[in-house]
Amino acid sequence: MGNRGRADLPLAVQAGDGALTLEERAEVWIEPYWNAEHLRRTRDWLLELEPDASEALRLAALTHDMERHFPEGSPQQNLAVPPEGDMEYRRLHSERSAAIVGDWLRGEGADEGLVAEIERLILAHEVGGAQDEDLLHAADSISFIETNVDLPARWAAEGKCTFERGVDQHRWMYERIRVPRARELARPLYERILGLAA
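The structure corresponding to this sequence follows.
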């Protein structure tokens, strides 16, 4: 995906450090991100759905939103429209995340085939597609609902949108899940959000 004019990204640890796996280095890299818990829980939910998930899937789950950690040049979501009405934002977000994660992986000395797989998965994390892409998409959705309970109130308090629009973000995240088991796992989490809106 190339550098695309971004400043060099910091390494989590020295490249080639045999003491940590690539997944462990990714855990260190995401730690300062304000929503790192969402990324960790995405990987956890992925493993709940697919205990034998590939390294590429696990790493994509753990890093799929990292472009938001580098806000300069980050696309802005249009909260004046329903979530499904702003797919251009989701495309730009996915492309930027894939590029940033790909650059970081290359800096860590990751195999180019693995990098390409992770980039492919991150590019699809908002829309799904193939079976592995649907798993990542579902795990992301469950984790979003679980870790962003305060989002409707926070967005409303910050003047970004109404409380109802924040709840609608959760509705969309729930309804977009195509993996039946994931939808079952997400249901009680989504019902908790609906309880806040009652």
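The first helix runs from residue 22 to 30.
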